Amino acid sequence: xxxxxxxxxxxxxxxxxxxxxxxxxxxxxxxxxxxxxxxxxxxxxxxxxxxxxxxxxxxxxxxxxxxxxxxxxxxxxxxxxxxxxxxxxxxxxxxxxxxxxxxxxxxxxxxxxxxxxxxxxxxxxxxxxxxxxxxxxxxxxxxxxxxxxxxxxxxxxxxxxxxxxxxx
Length: 168
Prior knowledge:
By secondary structure, this protein is mainly α. The protein has seven helices and three strands. Helix 3 (about 60-70) runs antiparallel to helix 6 and helix 4 packs antiparallel against helix 5 (about 105-120).
């Protein structure tokens, strides 16, 4: 059968060039060391990749502590109330960032009124503010911390509605 070779004699032709196979056959220790070094290198890279985890983003320690002790929400706060709360939180944040004595105190009192009224109406409320799931106690803890840094005179307003177990 002239044109085609059969059997195991030519089965290796599809795997590698005969020149390379011949070169490796004449240098078995070099081939063995090359493959061993390659295997060790791959093993080290895989081990390192599996043992190292990506760095975790820095977290606010107050938020981590506060959320770990807070109960799960038991009430759903209506969207309009959440919108009003978002505006109140933005007002409080702007007042603290401005640190301007001319900032209207009535706006801060009104914003605190929205926060305290929500905590009275929905003490176990759960909702999303700015895309973040939160709860009424978590908001009170955060507002108290912000006021402590910004205007400690207003902290008693929040302390009046913040359950004692969540106060420092």
